[in-house]
Amino acid sequence: xxKWKYLTMTAALGSALLLGACGSNTAEEEPATNEQTTxxxxxxxxxxxxxxxxxxxxxxxxxxxxxxxxxxxxxxxxVKVSVGVSGxxxxxxKFIAGETDFSNASRPIKDEEKAALEEAGIEYTEFKIANDGxxxxxxxxxxxxxDLTVDQLKALWIEDGTTKKWSDxxxxxxxxxxxxxxxxxxxxxxxYFDEVILDGADLVKNATLSEDDNVLVQGVAGDKNAxxxxxxxxxxxxxxxxxxxxxxxxEPNNETIESGEYTPLSRPLxxxxxxxxxxxxxxxxxxxxxxxxxxxxMAEAVGYVKLQDVDYETGLSTLEGLK
Length: 323
Description:
The protein is an alpha/beta fold. It has helices at residues 62-75, 87-96, 111-119, 150-157, 166-169, 188-196, 213-221, 232-236, 254-259, 275-280, 282-301, 309-322; strands spanning 26-28, 51-57, 79-84, 102-105, 124-133, 135-138, 147-148, 179-183, 208-210, 226-230, 243-244, 246-247, 266-274.
């Protein structure tokens, strides 16, 4: 999983962000200096809090959350926020087990996860924080599969017992074996792709699966016959290594994702918060408030698409009602 570090920013998030990567499954951010802090900041008279906040879940949502954690540490340096990256499904498992205060998700919660939370006596609230366009990517040397239909994507990715070649999809394409890279089965991105492209059928068995999106990036970047998919932000961070596939003639970008024109691969991103933690942990309430106040700016800063302002206002009102 890529860990995003903010090096320089202006108070309005208007300057370019310099992002670096390191291999870590858990983000525990060091306090930021006042010069680094952006978005909503505490006035000198505001109460300083202490406490701990824990979350886990989607690798797609993680860049937004990690950026927020980085900035929040400059506002409340004595609140320790840790964010793991186990994938959407893995995050919900920890949420159900009572190990976390919030769970990041790149798909809506499933009925069986709702039932497990009810059985565990955990009440929760869903908050939308941004939009994403699940992006299908190919190697820059691939000059034949730059625009695919949904039906072609299904024919490519569905398991049918054959070893697939590009020429199986279109006879004019190379008779070369296709190399597949996919998020792991705990990923909400995997689930979403399976639902909207494969209609719940099995994904090709010979795909390389990984919860680390950087593994997928490197795999596709290193093989002319490779294809993969992941969140839009990871594509933007690697445009020098990859090219995005248009779907039904529509390329993924901020405008087509926000408008929903990039269908069916546009999707919302979520944070699920434990209601009791909001009520009982002042640090968690404050962190969630900060998240909703800054999620739009942070989403755009790391390559996703913000919601309408009214959506964040609704989220803040819902959060206040839980307290």
